[in-house]
Amino acid sequence: MELLASIMKNLPDAISLGLVWGIMAIGVYITFKVLDIADMTVDGTFALGGCMVAATVAAGWNPVLSSLLAILCGMVAGFVTGILHTKLKIPAILAGILTMLSLYSVNLMILGGKSNIGMSQFGEQSVETIPDKIAALFGISAKVTNVSIGLILAIVIIMGLYWFFGTEQGCLIRATGINEAMVKAQGGNTDSMKIVGLIIANGFVALSGALVAQIQRYGDVGMGTGTIVIGLASIIIGEVIFGTKGSFKIRIASVFFGSIIYRVIIAVVLLLGFNPNNLKLLTAVLVIAALSVPVVREHISEKKRINANMKKYEEVDTNVGA
Amino acid sequence: MLVLKDVCKTFNRGSANEKVALQGVNLNVQDGDFITVIGGNGAGKSTMLNMISGAFPLDSGLIKIGGENVTNQPEHIRAKRIGRVFQDPMKGTAGDMWIEENLAIAMRRGKKRGLKWGVTKEERELYKKLLAPFDLGLEDRLQTKVSLLSGGQRQALTLLMATIQKPDLLLLDEHTAALDPKTAAKVLAMTDELIKENKLTAIMVTHNMKDAIKYGNRLIMMMNGKIIYDVSGEEKSNLKVSDLLKKFEISTGEEFANDRMMLV
Ligand SMILES: Nc1ncnc2c1ncn2[C@@H]1O[C@H](COP(=O)(O)OP(=O)(O)O)[C@@H](O)[C@H]1O
Ligand SMILES: [Mg+2]
């Protein structure tokens, strides 16, 4: 009972975190699911968004401007990976890792050599984040503000992506992820489609990093570690609950739901006394478990088929023997 | 219309599995030609079509389409004037997208693709009208995923996609080989109809000698990366399978016993 009460108390935070991190998971969805590319850039891009915002907001920038700059930087990172992959023919995973590694140095540069920068709310050096501004504007609490920001962004993004992937360009990007030969035969430039997809995806991831940094009030050079796995976990949880057959809108929405549920799971295990240091291990195990479900299912049905087949012959044997 | 001049292609040059695919192919295709291509396994038929479509770069030689030198033009640029149907029914369509989405992508071949809606209402009516003659019931299933269709249905769809924007050149690479005989015959008949109706210039690779004789106005035979026989007009229409077999024997100098060439 006590646990349930604590969970309920933590729910608003889990929801707002889930929605804001969900924006990152949407980026992973675009590369991993739509384009069929495992884009490792996102670990670097997420931290890039967070560091960019932390450094500029702490320097007195308007947080909206800072966040827009963060998105732009994320898009550039996606562009770089796209060029490495399509023009220099570097395998997608390696291209992403190379950009991610470079970003680690870039992020340290952005933070002026420090490993993190805070955006303090009080004292002489106090600065305002986007949630601060919105909370002040509407006179609402931080909790309500964070949930509202997450909800509104999620709805805008779902509608926006539904529109974009229904356009001529968007259709061609989807087709590129499914069958490159077909797109080329129909006069589509698959290289451009991949680059555009990577740019959009990493823009979302940087935005997510920028918002997370503002909510936690600091940007850290290591905040992106394991981002892609968290994104995959969110996608998979969403698929487990809502299936993979739904319309595009439902599938995008289910990524956000998956991300929220992921945060709830994290909150619950932490309340149960789980060591926070082991969270990344838990996330990885979750993703491995989910990815292995279809394989295990296949294995079991194969076993059943073999056993049924052998049984048939055993019966025949005994009949022949008798 | 299409000119191939001394086109050569070797795969994996310099490695242990070096494969000479084309060694000096010359071909002059006239506007409105419907050419059937036969030849044994590995003769270079697919490679020739791939060189024309730009799927792989060629080692040496020249390719012109409609007077323009396209030798070094990337595949997707050349695709503006080329319609293609592959042997593998999976290759020509995007399985995880709807029939109408696939057709809409084909409808915009050679056109600018912007941020307008991907499939319009008027298009849908057109697709229904164009799918109906195929008599496969596809016209009522525009919002069905292509992955749910049979190989024959997918190949019919690919055929429509290759011709919905009239191509200067239609390339068909054993596009009925993966289908059962009845469906194959149907798709082939529709191919012939589409070519005649739209007065298309087409090159069709087939492993069926009867079909190669029955369809088109010109027939070429390939062997070891070369065109060894090129016949058209009356001479072609009077051909018999036995003539082709004889031709083969002369060229190979041995009894004809090829794996995939069909004798009937
Ligand atoms: N992508 C490729 N990589 C390596 N070798 C190839 C490739 N495509 C074709 N070849 C080789 O080139 C030769 C001609 O092949 P192909 O044009 O497919 O013959 P056909 O279509 O007449 O059966 C064969 O020896 C084949 O193994
Ligand atoms: Mg072939």
How would you explain this protein's 3D organization?
The complex is a heterodimer of chains A (322) and B (264). The relative contact order of chain A is 0.18. Chain A has a domain at 10-223. Chain A has helices at residues 2-34, 41-58, 63-86, 92-110, 130-138, 142-164, 168-178, 180-185, 190-216, 227-242, 248-271, 279-321; strands spanning 116-118, 218-220. In chain A, helix 1 (2-34) runs antiparallel to helix 9, helix 1 (2-34) packs across helix 11 (248-271) and helix 10 packs across helix 11. The longest helix of chain A has 43 residues, at 279-321. Chain A is mostly helical. Chain A has a two-stranded antiparallel ribbon. The mean pLDDT of chain A is 94. Chain B has 264 residues and is α/β, with parallel strands linked by helices. Chain B folds into 2 domains: 2-81 and 168-262, P-loop containing nucleotide triphosphate hydrolases (Rossmann fold, 3-Layer(aba) Sandwich), CATH 3.40.50.300; 94-166, no CATH class. Helix content of chain B is 33%, strand content 23%. Chain B has helices at 45-53, 75-78, 99-107, 121-131, 151-163, 181-197, 209-214, 233-237, 241-252; strands spanning 2-11, 19-29, 34-39, 60-65, 68-69, 82-85, 169-173, 202-205, 218-223, 226-232. In chain B, the strands form 2 sheets. A 6-stranded mixed β-sheet of chain B has the order 6-7-8-3-9-10, with helices on both faces. A 4-stranded antiparallel β-sheet of chain B has the order 2-1-4-5, covered by helices on one side. In chain B, strand 4 and strand 5 form a beta hairpin. In chain B, helix 5 (151-163) runs parallel beside helix 6. Chain B is globular. The two termini of chain B are 32 Å apart. Classes of the chains: A mainly alpha (322), B alpha/beta (264). The interface between A and B is medium-sized, with 22 and 34 residues. The site of magnesium ion (MG) has 3 residues of chain B, from helix 1.
Summary of the model, kept short:
Chain A has about 325 residues and is an all-alpha fold. Chain A has 12 helices and 2 strands.
